[in-house]
Design brief:
The complex is a heterodimer of chains A (495) and B (52).
Chain A: H1 5-24, H2 32-37, H3 44-54, H4 58-71, H5 77-92, H6 96-101, H7 107-114, H8 117-135, H9 138-150, H10 157-206, H11 208-220, H12 242-258, H13 260-268, H14 272-282, H15 285-306, H16 319-327, H17 332-364, H18 374-397, H19 403-429, H20 435-459, H21 463-484
Chain B: H1 4-51
The chains are: A mainly alpha (495), B mainly alpha (52).
């Protein structure tokens, strides 16, 4: 697929508009409060646009399409569970209501109010490590999409993504959350149109009934490629299975209440009610977040199965962008590329700002004897955004990850979610919880998954067992640690 | 097509496409107003700070 002049016009117009809006918002940044949480002036619909844009990145589209390619539409069950988790949290206010009411800027800040400044620092370290290592793979997977869908030379990947990251860094470092919100809005519009158009074109090309028949034939083993997982029934033994789905539900509730990039929208909301409405109204969006790219992946499977197999050099991860590059008509590819750039940029900007805020707020500030001036705080946060950008370039783009590092990434994400989720639940809802329990939960939550990583392959431990164990060990640490401290030192629930 | 799971996913796919289209249209208009209000609030705060 070669980009035409019209395609380039669409892409350049989008990038220019986005950059202008992002840089323009710089004039309203007076301090860290505006920079990190937009002065807590965000209304519900802007929150929906920002949350939707941030939590649907190009990396999301790549791995959800890969799920569709390998497991058919059943792979999108995780999206249904994610939607259920967001709706439940939005309906009940579980964790997010007291968290927003507390008026903190980050999750670890709450732990100083509830436990101690050292717990805040240690939790901040977990949040930053898990978050940065998680984000380390974004650029490479985003670049893979652009290279495979446009037919760009593969050696351009690093340079294209470096320039893209440079653009994101420019407006994020200047305007902070204010720039992120405005650019998220534009990116939400472009991305939404691109996803709808692509899904309709894929359905027209693959045909609804024909796609079902192709996947069923592949499952039965009578197509050009064999599908080893039931394409429609997630409860089937060959597919995800009950245990894995239950584990995913727990993980999604933990992510909805603990993942700092999501929570930063809660903390930027005008009040707790606005945050809850934002969750409820965004919930169904997460079904499409998994299902629509999953549909593209399943259609790519059916297409290549009819061709007799994947072309040389194409994997289950790159099959979908390769397929889109083949089927998208001229003129549409520019819109789709602009949409995917929007998905990548909105996620990168939100994540850059979030992790920089946690480093400033929870790792550096507690260690300072004399507080910085307002200008000094703003400069430090901006420098941290740039520093994380440099880290991303070297870690995720110019440095080839060895195979087992990917396992390590999955485990670090789990350490963060299990331990910090346990601290939040106990800190907000269990008056007997104390700092000793918090330390034990953080350490036990870390030891569990790492141990499973080391012996998991030897004993073939399923991911759901490793995942549940991390939560169980963190909870056990919190309960035993808190009960081992004298009762009079335990504070009542702060909120 | 007798498989209930096929029907389930078909409904969700069409529902998701419709929902995304609706969100872009409805939230697009509403969030645009939110941005206008946000900028107005920030301008008022800046003007207030200059006066004081």
């Amino acid at each position: 697929m070669t980009l035409t002049a019209l395609d380039w016009l669409i892409i350049i117009s989008y990038l220019a508009g986005c950059m202008a809006a992002g840089i323009w918002m710089r004039r309203y940044v007076r301090g860290v409060e505006e920079f990190a949480v937009a002065g807590r002036e965000m209304n519900v619909n802007l929150g929906i646009a920002s949350l939707a844009a941030t939590e649907l990145g190009l990396v999301t589209i790549m791995y959800t399409a890969q799920l569709g390619f390998e497991k058919g539409l059943a792979g999108a069950s995780i999206g249904v569970l994610m939607a259920a988790a967001f709706y439940l949290v939005g309906r009940t206010g579980f964790i997010i209501k007291p968290l927003r009411t507390a008026g903190v800027m980050t999750i670890p800040e709450l732990f100083e109010q509830r436990f101690s400044v050292r717990v805040r620092w240690l939790a901040g370290l977990f949040v930053v490590l898990g978050g940065l290592l998680n984000m380390g793979i974004f650029l490479r997977l985003g670049g893979e999409f652009l290279v495979w869908s446009t037919g760009l030379p593969p050696h351009w990947l690093e340079w294209v993504m470096t320039i893209l990251l440079g653009l994101v860094l420019l407006y994020t470092a200047l305007g902070g959350m204010l720039s992120v919100l405005v650019t998220d809005y534009l990116q939400f519009l472009v991305m939404g149109v691109g996803i709808v158009v692509t899904s309709v074109l894929v359905l027209i090309h693959a045909g609804g009934f024909e796609l079902v028949a192709s996947l069923q034939a592949a499952w039965a083993g009578s197509a050009g490629m064999k599908l080893n997982s039931h394409p429609f029934n997630p409860f089937h033994g060959s597919s995800l299975g009950w245990g894995y789905l239950l584990w995913m539900l727990v993980l999604q509730v933990a992510a909805a209440t603990t993942w700092q990039t999501v929570i930063s929208r809660v903390l930027a909301a005008k009040d707790a009610g606005t945050a809850q409405r934002m969750y409820r109204r965004t919930s169904f969006y997460f079904v499409g977040r998994f299902l629509l790219p999953g549909l593209w992946g399943a259609a790519a499977f059916a297409y290549f199965a009819a061709q007799g197999g994947l072309p040389e050099g194409v994997s289950s991860l790159t099959a979908m962008p390769h397929y889109l590059g083949i089927i998208l008509p001229v003129g549409f590819i520019g819109l789709v590329i602009a949409a995917m750039l929007a998905a990548e940029m909105s996620t990168d900007s939100g994540y850059l700002l979030t992790w920089a805020t946690v480093i400033y707020n929870d790792l550096i500030t507690p260690c300072l004897k004399n507080p910085l001036s307002p200008k000094g705080r703003l400069l430090l946060t901006r420098l941290l955004v740039l520093g994380i950008g440099v880290f991303l370039l070297f870690y995720g783009l110019w440095y080839e990850l060895p195979g087992n590092a990917w396992d390590y990434l999955a485990v670090t994400g789990n350490i963060y979610l299990a331990s910090v989720f346990t601290l939040l639940v106990a800190g907000l809802y269990w008056p007997r919880a104390n700092a000793r329990g918090a330390y034990a939960a953080l350490i036990m939550g870390a030891i569990g998954p790492v141990t499973f990583l080391l012996i998991g392959k030897k004993f073939s431990i399923p991911p759901e067992v490793a995942g549940f164990s991390a939560f169980a060990l963190a909870a056990l640490g919190m309960i035993l640690g808190s009960l081992s401290a004298p009762a009079q030192t335990a504070r009542p629930a702060a909120l | 097509m007798k498989d209930p799971f096929v029907l389930f996913w078909a409904v969700l796919i069409l529902g998701s496409i419709a929902w995304y289209g609706f969100l872009v249209f409805y939230v697009g208009i509403k969030a645009g107003r939110d941005i206008r209000d946000l900028i107005r609030t920030l301008r008022e705060q800046q003007a207030g700070n200059k006066k004081s």
